[in-house]
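Good morning,

Attaching, inline, the backbone tokens for the sequence recovery test we're adding to the shared suite. The designed sequence is right after.
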């Protein structure tokens, strides 16, 4: 081979090989650092595609396992509710048997009847209130909603004066209806007044069946726009919790202005008896009181079937349907055949010996109805347990398949990396030697 100065062929060859070795070492290093055999599609396009699908399936199965756990928790809540109802029914049968005996007078049966009717109401309350995340499990859920109409009675209870939202936090309290005439005579009255010492107090009065039942006051002085340590900034909100009344009120920045206005003078008081017919100069009359009533709502209804996603796909086999049965007084005792139920016994269920004897039979059927519903829940729980086992096994095997395709054999790759490192070091050394070869030409030029 001719010796020349312009082109150093040996150095070019060494550089090309060094570049290739360095790239291979870099790829090997990226695999070792990431722990995966397929860093990019060019490493193994087919394995990357299959592995991505397997990884998605694995994550979906993990979520499905969580769904199964939640489903089991839901059914356990239902079972717990039915266990309590069973205890109630046992007590009701005891009372009915006792009232069936001729050694009792009507007065004594009346005492037993009072407890019997109260226990039946408790069954309905348990069935109505037993839910999971708002999903009814044992019966329809009665509910109470706030009715802010008509506007003429609460025209100052609006965002312009600081009131964003009213929310019930104790439905059982507001659902009280001793008069049995509906809950629309349950309501609230809101007042904000300046005390003699300059404090501003917000008072809410709760009325049940048209009569004041509870009252709670909160010091809101610090919410004042001027100098208030809790003044609400524009666009922000705060929550006033009237926990004794089962109520929360969300307020906005305008509430701070309302407190400021009331703090100036008792003549600016807000609410009933304030004599303020022009609140904050808006023409709104608060002197007659700022109040609103409740309205009955159907609430959440019991679904005949609840579907749980127990697989990672979108087929019928990836879902499991569970049937729920109502176990309230309107159903228990009827045996699904239209027979007399607990509800049909009326308010004088065991007030007579004959009525008590009939109640014994009805309660016995009710216990049988409850056990059928409870057995169905137990069956579904067992099925869910097996579904969970299958998910765990499938997830394990899918993860193993993904690992085979994508996970790196660290020992083998480390051996390959060491080899590539040696090639890089050798390439660097040879490139250095190749760059020294043109120096030999200097001897000819010097001669």
């Amino acid at each position: 081979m001719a010796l020349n100065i312009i082109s150093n062929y040996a150095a070019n060859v060494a550089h090309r090989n060094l570049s290739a070795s360095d790239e291979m070492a870099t790829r090997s290093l990226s695999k070792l650092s990431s722990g995966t055999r397929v860093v990019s599609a060019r490493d193994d396009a087919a394995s990357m595609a299959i592995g991505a699908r397997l990884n998605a399936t694995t994550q979906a199965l993990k979520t499905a396992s969580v769904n199964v756990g939640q489903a089991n928790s839901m059914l356990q809540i239902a079972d717990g509710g039915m266990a309590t109802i069973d205890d109630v029914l046992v007590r009701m049968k005891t009372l009915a048997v006792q009232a069936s005996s001729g050694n009792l007078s009507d007065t004594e049966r009346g005492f037993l009847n009072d407890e019997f009717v109260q226990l039946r109401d408790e069954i309905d309350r348990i069935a109505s209130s037993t839910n999971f995340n708002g999903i009814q499990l044992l019966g329809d859920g009665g509910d109470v909603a706030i009715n802010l109409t008509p506007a003429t009675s609460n025209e100052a209870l609006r965002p312009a004066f600081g009131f964003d939202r009213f929310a019930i936090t104790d439905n059982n309290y507001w659902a009280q209806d001793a008069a049995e005439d509906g809950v629309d005579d349950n309501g609230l009255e809101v007042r904000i007044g300046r005390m003699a010492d300059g404090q501003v107090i917000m008072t809410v009065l709760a009325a049940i069946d048209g009569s004041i039942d509870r009252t709670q006051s909160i010091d809101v002085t610090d919410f004042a726009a001027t100098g208030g340590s809790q003044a609400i900034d524009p666009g922000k909100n705060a929550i006033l919790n009237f926990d004794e009344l089962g109520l929360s009120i969300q307020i906005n920045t305008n509430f701070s202005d309302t407190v400021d206005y009331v703090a100036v003078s008792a003549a600016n008081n807000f609410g009933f008896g304030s004599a303020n017919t022009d609140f904050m100069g808006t023409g709104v009359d608060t002197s007659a009181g700022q109040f609103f009533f409740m309205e009955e709502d159907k609430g959440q209804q019991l679904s005949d079937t609840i579907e749980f996603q127990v697989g990672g796909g979108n087929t019928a086999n990836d879902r499991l349907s569970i049937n729920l049965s109502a176990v309230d007084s309107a159903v228990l005792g009827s045996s699904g055949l239209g027979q007399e139920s607990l509800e049909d016994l009326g308010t004088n269920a065991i007030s007579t010996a004959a009525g008590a004897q009939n109640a014994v039979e009805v309660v016995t059927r009710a216990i049988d109805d409850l056990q059928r519903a409870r057995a169905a829940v137990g069956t579904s729980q067992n099925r869910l347990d097996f579904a969970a086992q299958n998910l765990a096994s499938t997830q394990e095997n899918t993860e193993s398949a993904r690992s085979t395709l994508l996970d790196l054999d660290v020992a083998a790759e480390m051996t390959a990396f060491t080899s590539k490192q040696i090639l890089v070091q050798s390439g660097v050394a040879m490139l250095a030697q190749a760059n020294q070869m043109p120096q030999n030409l200097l001897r000819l030029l010097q001669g």
